[in-house]
Amino acid sequence: MHHFGKAIYNGLNKPGTNVRFNVTHPNDNTTHFGYETVDEREKAGRVRQVFDSVATKYDVMNDLMSGGLHRLWKIFTIARSGVKPGMKVLDIAGGTGDLAKAFSKKVGPSGEVWLTDINNAMLTCGRDRLLNNGTIVKTAQCDAEKLPFPDGYFDIVTVAFGLRNMTHKDSALAEMRRVLKPGGKLMVLEFSKVTPLLAPIYDFYSFQVIPRVGKVVANDSDSYRYLAESIRMHPDQETLKQMMEGVGFDRVQYHNLTGGVVALHVGDKF
Ligand SMILES: C[S@@+](CC[C@H](N)C(=O)[O-])C[C@H]1O[C@@H](n2cnc3c(N)ncnc32)[C@H](O)[C@@H]1O
User: Fold this and answer.
1) Distance 22 CA to ligand 1 centre (A)
2) Is residue 268 within 8 Å of 185, Cβ to Cβ?
3) Contact indicator for 93, 160 with CB cutoff of 8 Å
4) Where does residue 68 fall: left (phi above 0), alpha (psi -120 to 50 degrees), or beta otherwise?
5) Which of 57, 71, 117 to mutate to test the pocket of ligand 1 (most atoms within 8 A of CB)?
6) How far apart, in whole angstroms, are the C-alpha atoms of residue 65 and residue 69?
7) Cα 118 to ligand 1 centre (Å)
8) Which residue has a Cα nearest atom 15 of ligand 1?
9) What is the spatial distance between Cα 258 and Cα 239, in angstroms, rounded to a whole number?
10) Nearest CA to ligand 1 atom 27
11) Which residues pair with 37 in a beta bridge?
12) Is the dihedral of CA 181, 185, 189, 194 positive or negative?
């Protein structure tokens, strides 16, 4: 079955409450995997297959597909984070470790940076890449929906291009809030809804160009079709802002980058 509609989020949009947002299918236990409707229990496994498949080519494909723009989006995120020496930072779905590497320099020896991901192949590539670069960070393989950290531990939590792969985004966002200190900040960098002016060219690029590049470079067009579809199924800027407010984040703001191709959402925990 395919689902082409906009994701539906149900829930009371009340700060401080743990609201369950039912994605696409409010009354059953299905969710979306790209444009496919799948059983909730199936999604994590399907996502794992994608990232197992792309792990070794992830960096080169990232640069190719975004024309290097992902580096600028991450530089903006790092600048906006205000990370200072001595801080504790958690990077969720950190994959090959771009943010963790930059944060590690900023927090210095008195700080602490954790690179985490649910996927062993991605985490191993990231950890090895950082080690080869002389950067040592703590690593943990874990699901963002069940974080193995105590309440109120981190100053900053980041998740870059990871949230859209998660089955229960509301549970993951609530977990991110739980592990933040009061006064801490969550930053969600993710693909979002482009301005209508860019939409035709962006659609052509996403569905015609990217899967073909994926086929040539990584011999895997399906994973890169999933990428394009999962972006379309991800909540738009305002919906994600409401989701963050729904799990209790305060002062949620977002910055549109590159005409809304990507948005950086920032929320505080008071
Ligand atoms: C597109 S990569 C992003 C990697 C990196 N953050 C970056 O910006 O380059 C998405 C990552 O999300 C991870 N992921 C998917 N579901 C997850 C979950 N439930 N918990 C933690 N990580 C997850 C995947 O394993 C993958 O490494």
Assistant:
1) 21
2) yes
3) yes
4) left
5) 117
6) 9
7) 7
8) 165
9) 19
10) 95
11) 32
12) positive
- Whole-number Å distance between alpha carbons of 125 and 115: 12
Task: Assess contact for 25 and 31: CB atoms under 8 A.
Answer: yes
Supply the pTM of this predicted model. 0.90
Q: pLDDT tens digits for 29-75?
A: 999 999 999 999 999 999 999 999 999 988 998 999 999 999 999 99
CB atoms within 10 A of CB 215: 15
Helix or strand holding residue 251 (H, E): strand 250-257
Q: Which domains are assigned to the chain?
A: 5-268 (3.40.50.150)
Q: Which tens digits make up the pLDDT trace of 129-169?
A: 999 999 999 999 999 999 999 999 999 999 999 999 999 99
Cα gap 206→118, rounded to integer Å: 25
Alpha carbons 219 and 130: distance in angstroms, whole number: 26
Is the CB of residue 112 less than 8 Å from the CB of residue 88? yes
- Taking 3-state DSSP, the helix, strand and coil percentages for the chain, each rounded to the nearest 5, stand at 45, 20, 35
3-state DSSP call for residue 270? coil
User: Per the structure block, which two tokens stand in for 91?
Assistant: 């990077």
* Residue 206 CB less than 6 A away from ligand 1: no
Do residues 64 and 217 lie in contact, with contact meaning Cβ atoms separated by under 8 Å?
A: yes
| CA–CA separation, 162 and 264 (whole Å) | 12
